[in-house]
């Protein structure tokens, strides 16, 4: 059951089943392997999320000093009569 839920990316459910398997010597090592696999998959997902969020933050170019000055100059034109 734990392997099934890993394949479905239902990691919480998979962990629950794998932890139950730790109680049985016949499948204890397999359960440890599954829990280690889940940990690795979760870490990989978190790294991917972190990478995506950092790319989103850097994808919008920050205004440069020159562009800010140009915007200020164009908005502050006044005419003197």
Count of individual domains:
1
Largest sheet: number of strands, sense, barrel closure: none
User: Could you tell me the radius of gyration in angstroms?
Assistant: 27 Å
Given the C-alpha coordinates, what overall shape results?
A: elongated
Provide the succession of SSEs: HHHH
The helical percent reads over 70%
How many strand elements? 0
**Helix/strand structural class:** mainly alpha
Distance between the termini: 83 Å
- Number of helices, where a helix is a run of at least 4 consecutive DSSP H or I residues: 4
Average pLDDT level: 81
Note poorly predicted spans.
none
* % residues in beta strands: under 5%
List the helices and strands and how they pair.
Layout: H1 2-7, H2 11-21, H3 28-59, H4 65-75
Helix pairs in contact: 2-3
Notes on the structure:
The chain has one domain. The protein is 74% helix and 0% strand. Helix 2 packs antiparallel against helix 3. The model has no long low-confidence stretch (mean pLDDT 81). It starts with a helix and ends in a 6-residue tail after the last helix. It has 81 residues and is an all-alpha fold.
In short:
The chain is mainly α and 81 residues long. The protein has helices at residues 2-7, 11-21, 28-59, 65-75.
Features:
mainly alpha; 4 helices
